[in-house]
Design brief:
This protein is of the alpha/beta class. The chain has 2 domains: 115 residues, Nuclear Transport Factor 2, Chain: A; 235 residues, Rossmann fold (3-Layer(aba) Sandwich), CATH 3.40.50.410. The strands form 5 sheets. Strands 7-6-4-11-14-15 form a 6-stranded mixed β-sheet, sandwiched between helices. Strands 1-2-3 form a 3-stranded antiparallel β-sheet, with helices on one face. It has a two-stranded parallel sheet with strand order 5-8. Helix 2 packs antiparallel against helix 3 and helix 6 runs parallel beside helix 12. The longest helix is centred in the N-terminal third of the chain and has 43 residues. 42% of the residues are buried.
Amino acid sequence: MSQVCRLCREERGSMAIMMGLTAVPLIFAVGAGVDYGTANMAKAKLDAVADTAALAAVDHQAITGTPAAAQTTAQTTFNAEAVNIPNVTVNNVTATVTDSTTGRTAVVSYSATKTNMFMGIFGYPSTTITGSSTSQAGLTTNINFYLLLDNSPSMNIAATSAGIATMVAATSAQGGCAFACHESDPAADNLGNPGGEDNYTLAQKLGVVTRMQNLASATQSLMSSAASMEGANNSQYQMAIYTFNSSGLNTIQLLTSNLTNAKNAAANINVEEVYSNNWLTKTNQNNDTDTNFESAMSAINTLMPLPGTGTPASTPQEVLFIVSDGVDDEVSSSCSQTLDGNRCQQPFNTTWCTTVKNRGIQIAVLYTAYLPLPTNSWYNNWIAPFQSQIGPNLESCASPGMFFTVTTDGDITAAMQTLFQQAVAAARLTQ
């Protein structure tokens, strides 16, 4: 008994026993902390990979494709990055990409396991990690633009008030003419210009810039601006360029996505050349009926396909872009005022505008204001009576918010670009 009592009184070694008993939970706690920390580090890396994958579904390249293609891109991106994270096994990754009127949304979700270094000893060989990432971006809006440019003789008036005054002063033998009409046989009209030249050549020699010259350079500038805008908007803008006059539609550039080619082609925009006053050609006396809007509209309506929403999964939207001074001049028996030989001069008939818009095609109209010429008897007799109707008539042709007027001395380049921006904005809103 004395030996037993002696053992009870002995306290040496008790701390070793206590340490032995507490070592197990301490080791478990430290190991759990280490595994928890490494699991959090792995999750942070996987979350970053999910962010990258979600962004890949809405980046500049993917946004031009379909949602299905973007989903594949996101999953491929995630798997390619996640494989580089040590001790992590990805069990499942899903990418969901949806398009709506407000844009594209991509959601990348994942489930993975992280191998534990210490917790496996205690029956927990791995830690499950889950996460997701969401990204959004405005959808691409692909648009086909069809430029319909009036190049009839009335569009080749001097572009500025000073230029008009110069032309009028230089053409006193004609009674003063502000139009730089292009004639292949000006001698037939006895214009009285030096060397028997036409007003087109006279304007060039006088350094007078015409409205048609400005329209050609403005169209070239528009091609450059469109190229910049499509990059900024993750979109594709295709361009077709046509002029119209007595013969209806004339092709400058067929629909193309190569806006550099379209810009180069726009340099060929010029006023219609006639044979002489009242004669379109040497054998065609057309009484100067040189603006056939209805024929041009009928032809271009046939060329333009039905529009889509402009999203990657659909066909492009279609926009008809008209530039004109708004006066019809053609042979017609149905006219508000018929001149000799069924010659008709009146504001454009907007029936075709309604037909085009009813197909879902938007119309943008730039009205290059018809200049009143009160000193000209022809203007006073035939144009002045409906001068006030020209602008409103063209505005009714345009889709809402897509009408712009540029007057004499105005900047056609700025006007075309403003209208183009309005057309793009309207297209994105209706997507």
